Each structure stands twice: as C-alpha cells, then as structure tokens.
Amino acid sequence: MGKIREAITALAGEVTAWVIRWFLGLTVLAVAFQVGRWVAIHLGWAWNPDAAGLLAALSLVVLYAQRHFDTTLGRIDQQLHHLEALGGRLNPVQSAGGLRNADDSDSRYLVALEERTAPARWISASPEAVYSELRARAANARSRMPFSGREEERVLLARQEPLIALALGSFANDQDVLRAVWKRSTTDGALGPEVRSGIRSAVLSNRSRDHSRFPASIIGESDLRQLLVEGPEEEAQALLSNAIVDDQLLTSLYERAEPFATLTDQKWCRLVMLSGANERLTDRRDGYDMPDLGHIRIHQALFRMLEIAPLDEHWVQVLYFLYERLDPDHTFSPNRERLVHVLERWAGAEPPERGAHAPSEFACLLACLYGRLDDYSVFGAYDSPDALERCSYYAHGLLTEREIERFRLETGEETKNFYLSIAYNGSVLLKPKLRFLVEDVCGGADFARRYKRRCEQLHRSWPNFDPRPSADWLLEVEHDRY
Predict the structure, then answer these.
(1) How far lies 199's CA from each of 167, 191, 239, 471, in Å?
(2) Distances 21 to 69, 72, 425 between C-alpha atoms, Å
(3) What residue spans of 256-407 are helical by DSSP H?
(4) Torsion from C-alpha of 379, 383, 388, 391, nearest 10 degrees
(5) Which of 446, 445, 405 is nearest to 428 (CA)?
(6) Percentage of the chain surpassing pLDDT 70?
(7) 328 pLDDT higher than 70
(8) Is 60 exceeded by the pLDDT of residue 145?
(9) Residues paired with residue 372 on neighbouring β-strands, in sequence order
C-alpha cells in the first residue's frame, strides 16, 4: 500500500504543478495582450490594436504549449501507468482475459493455469455462472469468431441443467452444439413445455455469429416448415426478428413463396408483422467490391408484396408499421408503371373504421419510399396536380427555402402530407440551412418520430452528419422512443 500511496502523491503533484503552470501562463497572456495593443497603437495600427494584442498572446500560447504540454502530460501518463501496474500486482484480475493484459511472470502463469483447468471449471461451475460467462462472451466481438469457445461449449453440452441448455441455445457458436440443444428441446420429456419452448426460442434468437442458411442449417427444413406453419408465435417471432436469419427466408416471406405459399392470408399477415422489427431490413452490408445482394433481393421482395398483398384494413396497418421504418436510400427503385400501379392499388384500399392510418396516408408513405425511379428520375413534381406525385417530390426533390416556407402558415391535408414526406428528404436534411428551416416549419409527434429516425439513418451513411435536432421543441422530446 505504501507504493500505491507514493504513486498517488506523485500523480497529485504532477497535476498540481500542471494547473499552477497554466494559471501563470494565463497571467502572462493577459500581459502579452496589453503589450501587443500598446505596440500596435504606437506603431500606427490604432485601427485594430486588439488584433495585434491577440496575435501576441497566441504566439505565447504556441511557444508555451510546445515547451511544457507534452512533457507534463508525459509525466502524468507515466505516473498513471505506474499506479495501474501496482494495482495489477496487488489485485490480480481473475479472468484470463484480464490477466493477459499484465506482463509479469505470475500473471502469465495464472493465464496458463486457467486455460489448462478450463474444462474442470466449466463442469463444476453453477448454471448461473455459466449463463453469465457465456452472455459476457457473446457481448464481446471476439466471441463471434468462428471457432471461439467451441471446446467449452461441447464440455457444457454434457451437463443436463435446463439453464445451461438455455445459455448454449442463446450464445453458443458451435453449430453442432446448437443442433444438439435444439434436438433436446424437442425430444426431452423431462423438461417442461415452457422450458422447451424457451430453449427453442433461444436457439432461434442466437446471433453469436452468422450461421449459413440459418435456421435451416441448425433445426432442419422439416422443423422450420412446421414452426412457420403451425408453431407457437413467440418462436416464430424469435426467428423472424433475428438479424442473421437467412436472407432467402425473408425474401420468400414477402413474395409468399415456399414455405409460406400455402399459408392463409391471416397467418401470412401475422408473420409479416413479426418480421417488421428485423434490423436486417435496414442493415445493408455492402462489401469493398460487392453490393449486399441479399439485402437488395429482400427489398425487391418487399415491393413485390405491395403488388400481391390483400387490400384490407388490417394489412394497411401492418404494412405501414413495417415500411415506415425502411431507409429510402436503400429501397428498391421501380419503373414508373409499377409504382403507379402500387400507389393506385393502396390508395383505394379498405378505409379504417377508427383511429388508424388511412389508405391515402399509406400511399403517400409509399410514394416517399419509392419515388426515386429506376432511371434515377423523381416521380412527380412540386406543382403536380396529383397529391401522391407531390408527396414523392417533397421526399426526393431539390426543394428551395421558399417552397418549404410556404407550409409555415398552411394547414390541411397537403400540409400533413408535406410533414410526412419532407422527413425522408435526405438532400434537404443534409443542407444545414434547409434542415433548420424544416425543423422550424414542421411540427407534431408523427413528424418528430419520422424525422429523428431519418436523421439516424443519414448518420449511419454520413458519420459527420449530426443526428441531434436543433429546434427547441424537438430537443424537449429528443430522448423519447418512437
């Protein structure tokens, strides 16, 4: 403890000396500023003496910083490393990952010991400790490597505790382990029905790494078909909301192809709704020299679904929930004929009985998402006689300040459509002056929800774009979840 106390005292001394030096430096800067002004006045620069004083002060800052700053911070950093080393020797970390950060021979010995005794520790550890350890590993990016933790997982597979089976289903990397856990959840009568369902949901939710053709490669085609056709909804939700699910499965869902071809309209609609929160719909993973073809096919299927889905009230609400979360920069670009057909189709859908999204509102949303056509032109114009064409232009056109300012005082259906559409217009939001104007002109909780979601999407594509709003009314609800 004496060495730690000495290190802390030395660190405090360095910090105190650093503060005193900078206090004296500020005093010197004030004197330099006044001297610079006096020299400027006497040399005939009376028209701008403050600039001369500021120049003199800044010159001293550069000289002072170059002389003392790096040296002082180096001393402080040296004391911190010394203190950290002392703390590491007196309080060794118990995990192998923490021990590997130390350099002394005792720590290296403990690391080797932990690695040699790992199977024994996994066999004797409590189920709660195993679950916590596997969960922590899953949160670490290294655990997502293909061969990470396989030996430990296979050792744990021999244990029969339900909590360990749940942990392996949730966080295991090894496909053979996951297959064994799934088989046990379907055949082990000693487990209660709720436990078996929980283990199956855990396997279907597993994201430890991208498994090829997940989940068919784990549970088999037969079990997958049974799950989707007549399985419990909570298990279907676990699968369809999993971001590593096979892209082809989502594509087939939206195109109503096998294994979804024979489902009733009601069951198909339900599964589509369960997939609405899947991050894969907005997570495009382009490579260095290859676009994300799976993501592109999913969005082609999403547009195809608009051409074949039933036109009833329930479908309008389900699809509105799904489509309003899409990123318009990554959606499919149709030709004019297909887009006109889709817009006319949904604009004439069955109207809701009460308090829900109207078909005209959903059609406006679709015009915002798909208004950039396959020939790179914008569907519609600012002064188009068709309301949906105007919605498309509000979302994709190069609007001017005057065209945006027009909606400050207007009310009615056109203003509502403008609020919905302008939140998707990346070309406007990427211009600070126009973005501030949009925040000032628009209002309402629906606009705030769409606007902040769109700003987050733009931030992912343009890291220098600040997604935080600047308008006071939006700042008040900045942390609300929509």
Answers:
(1) 8, 10, 13, 47
(2) 10, 10, 52
(3) 265-274, 293-308, 313-323, 336-347, 359-370, 387-396, 401-405
(4) 80
(5) 405
(6) 74
(7) yes
(8) no
(9) 378
Contact between residue 402 and residue 434 where contact means Cβ atoms under 8 Å apart: no
Write down the pLDDT at residue 150.
Answer: 75
Of 462, 316, 333, 449, residue with least CA distance to 396: 333
- Write down the number of H helices and E strands in the chain: 26, 0
Please, which residues have CB within 8 angstroms of residue 446's CB and are 6 or more apart in sequence? 419, 420
**Residue appearing with tokens 């969960």:** 135
Question: Phi, psi at residue 189, to the nearest 5°?
Answer: -70, -15
Which one, of 126, 137, 123, lies nearest residue 95 by Cα?
137
| pLDDT at 103 exceeding the cut of 60 | no
335-350 per-residue burial string, b: 16 or more CB within 10 A, e: under 16: eeebbeebbebbbebe
The pLDDT of residue 459 is 94
| CB-based contact 243:284 (threshold 8 Å) | no
Q: Alpha-carbon distance 52 to 279, whole Å? A: 57
Tell me the pLDDT tens digit for each residue of 280-298.
999 998 888 889 999 999 9
pLDDT score recorded for residue 381: 94
Closest CA to 249 of 297, 209, 178: 297
Distance of CA 433 to the CA centre of its chain: 27
3-class secondary-structure state, position 378: strand
Q: What residues contact 215, with CB distance under 8 A and at least 6 apart? A: 203, 204, 224, 239, 245, 246
Termini Cα distance of the chain: 52
| Other Cβ atoms within 10 Å of 203 Cβ, number | 25
Three-state DSSP state, 47: coil
**What's the DSSP call for residue 372?**
B
Assigned token pair, 87: 């703390």
Which of 112-121, 202-211, 461-470 has the highest average model confidence (pLDDT)? Answer: 461-470
List residues bridging with 378 in a β-sheet.
Answer: 372
Confidence (pLDDT) at 355: 66
| Residue whose structure tokens are 């997570």 | 283
Q: Print burial letters for 89-110: b (CB count within 10 Å at least 16), e (below 16).
A: eeeeeeeeeebeebeeeebeeb
Rg (alpha carbons) of the chain, rounded to whole number: 31
Task: Report d(CA 342, CA 427) in Å as an integer.
Answer: 25
| Average pLDDT estimate for 178-192 | 88
DSSP symbols for 320-348: HHHHTTS-TTSS----HHHHHHHHHHHHT
Which amino acid would we find at residue 324?
E
- pLDDT at residue 58 greater than cutoff 50: yes
Nearest to 250 by CA among 299, 210, 315, 204: 299
